[in-house]
């Protein structure tokens, strides 16, 4: 398969679009946790109950349209091999938990892959909507609409005082997790990020790596999300997060301006060295590739590097993950073989862009 065709088929259509403040905010996500009233929660569900939930939700949503979204195609996790599951995780379409622990899990996806409805993860339903750039309100509107659409057909586990009931107490209430993926290289380079993260945590938000809980930040990409789901409305949760994100955008822009004014030559040297590594390496590990891609993306945003789209970071941060590398190679690879394949794919992708 040619690289052009592989990229076309591998990257979710929504990822190829720009959104507001997309020079710093890569994506916005809203996720709603819901459970069906008449079924045991997934953590203690029997095989029969788990299968019944999948069947019920397939009947409810499978092949259906919601406005301009859909039809929704269902993928059963027990029919996918480990590599296929890993690719879905790398595309943020399912969680690592669903891929690794759910025997009778499934996911409903629309064609653009901007909507992902996970079944039998920690809860019966995880409704997830993804948008490019800073579009939290738009993602919430879509998620809430989908939530109402599904609730017309099923009964949710709901308590008048506590709100939506979930497997984990931290999700009780709205069941809402709002998050943004941000590229913050200047705050990392200037070491301001070390004081900013504790301040964000004190505001009831949490900073994680690119794949959420338990993962480290790669390529200076951080996921910022809410911790509280009880005691606030969905709109207030989203607005609080949006306010912090807007402040982070301003701080990152100020840090970038400061670097250009005080250390322009050093910054240019760092960016072009990273570009050279990506353009000429024959072996490159994931961590080094992520850092170099971050530097090049910064160079594109600052106008140092021309003729290359900023979406290259979004693409290559995913395409160079282990699952995608092996899918592109159409075979299982050892860690060293993945490092070789990663370097080759990056070189080929840069040549396509330059061409």
Automatic annotation (TrEMBL):
Regulation of activity: Appears to be allosterically activated by the binding of pArg-containing polypeptides to the pArg-binding pocket localized in the C-terminal domain of McsB.
Annotated InterPro entries: Arg_Kinase (IPR023660), ATP-guanido_PTrfase (IPR000749), ATP-guanido_PTrfase_AS (IPR022415), ATP-guanido_PTrfase_cat (IPR022414), Gln_synth/guanido_kin_cat_dom (IPR014746)
Any GO BP annotation: phosphocreatine biosynthetic process
EC number: 2.7.14.1
Presence of the UniProt keyword Kinase in the record: yes
Annotated ATP binding sites: 27-31, 92, 126, 177-181, 208-213
Alphabetical keyword list: Allosteric enzyme, ATP-binding, Kinase, Nucleotide-binding, Transferase
GO molecular function, one term: ATP binding
Motif (RDXXRA motif of the pArg binding pocket involved in allosteric regulation): 338-343
Residue span, Phosphagen kinase C-terminal domain: 24-255
CDD domains named in the record: bacterial_phosphagen_kinase
Gene Ontology CC terms: extracellular space
Catalytic activity: L-arginyl-[protein] + ATP = N(omega)-phospho-L-arginyl-[protein] + ADP + H(+)
Keyword Oxidoreductase: no
UniProt enzyme class: transferase
Gene3D superfamilies per record: Glutamine synthetase/guanido kinase, catalytic domain
PROSITE patterns per the UniProt record, alphabetical: PHOSPHAGEN_KINASE (PS00112), PHOSPHAGEN_KINASE_C (PS51510)
Name of one Pfam family that matches: ATP-gua_Ptrans
Family: Belongs to the ATP:guanido phosphotransferase family.
Function: Catalyzes the specific phosphorylation of arginine residues in proteins.
Name of this chain's protein: Protein-arginine kinase
Organism, scientific name: Fictibacillus macauensis ZFHKF-1
UniProt gene name: mcsB
């Amino acid at each position: 398969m040619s690289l052009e065709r592989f990229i076309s088929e591998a990257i979710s259509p929504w990822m190829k679009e720009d959104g507001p403040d997309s020079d710093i905010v890569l994506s916005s996500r809203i996720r709603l946790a819901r459970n069906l009233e008449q079924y045991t929660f997934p953590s203690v569900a029997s095989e029969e109950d788990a299968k019944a939930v999948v069947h019920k939700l397939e009947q409810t949503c499978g092949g259906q349209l919601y406005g301009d979204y859909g039809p929704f195609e269902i993928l059963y996790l027990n029919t996918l091999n480990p590599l296929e599951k890993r690719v879905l995780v790398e595309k943020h379409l399912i969680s690592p938990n669903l891929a690794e622990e759910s025997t009778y899990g499934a996911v409903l996806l629309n064609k653009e892959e901007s909507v992902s409805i996970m079944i039998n993860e920690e809860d019966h339903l995880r409704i997830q909507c993804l948008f490019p750039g800073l579009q939290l309100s738009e993602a919430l509107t879509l998620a809430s609409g989908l939530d109402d659409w599904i609730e017309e057909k099923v009964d949710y586990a709901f308590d008048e005082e506590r709100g939506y009931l979930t497997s984990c107490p931290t999700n009780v209430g709205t069941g809402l997790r709002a998050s943004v993926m941000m590229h913050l290289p200047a705050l990392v380079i200037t070491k301001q990020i070390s004081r900013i993260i504790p301040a964000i945590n004190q505001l009831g938000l949490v900073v994680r790596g690119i794949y959420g809980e338990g993962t480290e930040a790669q390529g200076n990409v951080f996921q910022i999300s809410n911790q509280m789901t009880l005691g606030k409305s969905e709109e207030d949760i989203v607005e609080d997060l949006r306010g912090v994100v807007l402040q982070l955008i301003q701080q990152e822009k100020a840090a970038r301006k400061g670097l250009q004014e005080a250390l322009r030559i050093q910054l240019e040297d760092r960016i072009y060295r990273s570009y050279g590594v990506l353009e000429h390496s024959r072996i490159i590990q994931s961590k080094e590739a992520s850092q170099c891609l971050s530097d090049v993306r910064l160079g594109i945003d600052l106008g140092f590097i021309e003729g290359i789209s900023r979406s290259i970071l979004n693409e290559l941060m995913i395409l160079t993950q282990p699952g995608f590398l092996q899918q592109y190679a159409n075979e299982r690879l050892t860690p060293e073989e993945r490092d070789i394949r990663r370097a080759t794919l990056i070189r080929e992708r840069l040549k396509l862009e330059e061409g």
